[in-house]
């Protein structure tokens, strides 16, 4: 009888002292105090996601937190509501990206320019490469918006991939151009020879990913369809 009476006394003393108190019948009938895992309960929620927003699940998670706060679960029942799963984790990750977007973008741009300078050592060629990548990225983004109506979170990854491949191809094209320019004094002929010799390899390289992207995920899944069609066209 010592354990039940002790539990009842502790609860009564907490109430009389004005502190929050609980009394668990499960802990009373058990042989030992309840473990933290025994007190947890899971509720599975399937929210409606907004793929047009930067964080598709942020509105849903915000509504859940607001409902939990309105119910006064912490003060009245001593309960905490915590969210986990793919959607909250993904939203938190992209929120972190958004917080330092300007700083990270500036550092990335300076790094790209430094790589181009080390590889090419020509301000005019570097300018041409940067303009080409910027135009290509703008056209791909516009075409993606035309196809799916809105870009999604995975589009950020595609932008990074596009810039990385664009820098790689730009360096390859520029090096080939310099070699052709060394052998041919006429600018138009050198550019034509560069396009012929480099373009054939690039057409071959772009066929596998261009064919795979649209079929990577079932079409009914909006986010997968969007992430597949946009890179394929880009």
Any key phrases for this structure?
234 residues, mainly alpha, 71% helix
In short:
The protein has 234 residues and is mainly α.
Q: What count of domains describes the coordinates?
A: 2
* Mass-distribution shape: rod-shaped
Low-confidence segments = 215-232
Structural class per helix/strand content?
mainly alpha
Tally the beta strands: 0
Description:
The protein has 234 residues and is mostly helical. The protein folds into 2 domains: 2-85, no CATH class; 100-233, no CATH class. Helix content is 71%, strand content 0%. The chain starts with a helix and ends with a helix.
Question: What's the structural blueprint in terms of helices and strands?
Answer:
Blueprint: H1 2-16, H2 25-29, H3 58-70, H4 73-77, H5 86-99, H6 101-120, H7 123-148, H8 154-183, H9 187-212, H10 222-233
Helix pairs in contact: 6-8, 7-8, 7-10, 8-9, 9-10
């Amino acid at each position: 009888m010592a354990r039940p009476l002790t539990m009842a006394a502790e609860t009564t003393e907490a109430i009389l002292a004005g502190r929050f108190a609980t009394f668990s019948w499960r802990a009373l009938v058990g042989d030992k105090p309840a473990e933290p895992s025994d007190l947890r309960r899971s509720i599975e929620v399937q929210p409606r996601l907004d793929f047009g927003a930067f964080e598709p699940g942020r509105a849903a998670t915000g509504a859940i937190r607001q409902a939990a706060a309105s119910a006064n679960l912490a003060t009245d029942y001593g309960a905490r509501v915590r969210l986990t799963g793919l959607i909250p984790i993904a939203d938190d990750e992209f929120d972190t990206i958004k917080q330092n977007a300007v700083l990270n973008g500036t550092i990335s741009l300076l790094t790209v320019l430094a790589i181009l300078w080390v590889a090419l050592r020509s301000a005019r060629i570097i300018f041409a490469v940067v303009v080409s990548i910027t135009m290509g990225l703008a056209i791909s983004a516009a075409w993606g918006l035309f196809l799916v109506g809105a870009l999604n979170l995975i589009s950020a990854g595609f932008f990074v991939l596009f810039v990385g491949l664009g820098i790689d191809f730009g360096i390859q094209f520029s090096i080939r151009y310099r070699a052709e320019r060394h052998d041919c004094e006429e600018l138009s002929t050198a550019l034509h020879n560069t396009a012929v010799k480099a373009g054939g390899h690039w057409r071959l390289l772009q066929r596998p990913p261009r064919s795979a992207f649209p079929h990577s995920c079932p079409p009914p899944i909006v986010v997968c369809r969007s992430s597949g069609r946009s890179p394929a066209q880009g």
